[in-house]
Amino acid sequence: MKELIEFLAKSLVDQEGADQVQVVEERRSDGVRYTVRVAPGQLGRVIGKQGRTAKAIRQVVSSVASRTGDRVWVDIGGADAREGDE
Amino acid sequence: MKRVVATGRTVDEAVTSALVKLGVTRDEAQVRVLQEPTKGFLGLFGGRDAQVEVVVQETPEQAARSFVLELLRHMGVTAPEVRLNSSALSARECVIEIHCAESELSMIIGRKGVTLDAIQYLVNVVANRGQSEQVRFVVDAGQYRRRREEQVRRIAERAAMRAVRTGKPVPLEPMTAAERKWVHVALQNRSDVRTWSEGVEPNRKVIVSPVEVASGVSEPARRRRDDPRRGGWSRSKA
């Protein structure tokens, strides 16, 4: 799952930003939370207009997760990054 | 576009290692030397390696194919295959057919095709980035789109019959923009009903309404669609 999210984020950012993509996996009692971090200024590429790209990423991820019965959250940018970027 | 920066003792070595990383031949790539190698003292100390930048310009179709294949593999699909068919209507439209085991189709398509739509959206973003000519990609799996189009057409025909029979507008279930268009197209040549869309995504739906013959309006249905008071579909977003 982590590799899937990493692949999607790397495909969406600029070539130069691909090395800076980081996905942090955090296991919780009720599921797994993935936080996607990208280079500053690249956040828009993984979020998209009106969050459409982020929504598409979450849809693909949850489709895979539902097959295995996992509960999964995808946090794009993370709360800190979002504050810094806007 | 794929880009790799590589180093090596000579320019040739650097280029070779970059080509290996990209998996392409020299003919397909453009090479730019970022730094010529320099020999250090007695050829031992302080020398600098050669550094090159190798760029492969992919077409949107090539980029789309490799993106979808790799995405499916990451989704855990065993031995996925994709087939690209350029549309008969336009060279700028391309259908990507996903072939895989029957048991994996539901994961790729999702409820009401939501996952397929998400994959399609992502392909269009990734494969068209930095391209001068954009290609519109349609992603299909297990003939889902074709079957859904036929289903939507039948729904439209049935709604039209009911609208005419009851004399009342018939609202359809919420549909995506592409599905709503199929409804409009399916009924556009009928003179006894007219169609328009109402509501906000993702609950936007088509209304199939009888043309009020009783009121004695002889104006053709086609013209009335453009009437601003009616919010005809040609003005609002389909």
Summarize the structure.
The complex is a heterodimer of chains A (86) and B (238). Chain A is an alpha+beta fold and 86 residues long.
Question: How are the SSEs placed, and which strands pair?
Answer:
The complex is a heterodimer of chains A (86) and B (238).
Chain A: H1 2-12, E1 22-28, E2 31-37, H2 43-47, H3 52-68, E3 72-76, H4 78-85
Parallel strand pairs in A: 2-3
Antiparallel strand pairs in A: 1-2
Chain B: E1 2-8, H1 11-22, E2 29-35, E3 50-56, H2 60-74, E4 81-86, E5 93-99, H3 102-109, H4 114-128, E6 136-141, H5 144-166, E7 170-174, H6 177-187, E8 193-198, E9 205-210, H7 221-224
Parallel strand pairs in B: 5-6
Antiparallel strand pairs in B: 1-3, 2-3, 4-5, 7-9, 8-9
User: What is the count of structural domains of chain A?
Assistant: 1
Poorly predicted ranges of chain B: 214-224, 234-238
Structural class of chain A: alpha+beta
CATH superfamily of the largest domain in chain B: R3H-like domain
In CATH, the homologous superfamily of chain A goes by the name K homology (KH) domain
**What's the CATH class of the largest domain in chain B, please?**
Alpha Beta
Going across the major beta sheet of chain A, what is the strand order?
Answer: 1-2-3
Count of β-strands of chain B: 9
Structural class of chain B: alpha+beta
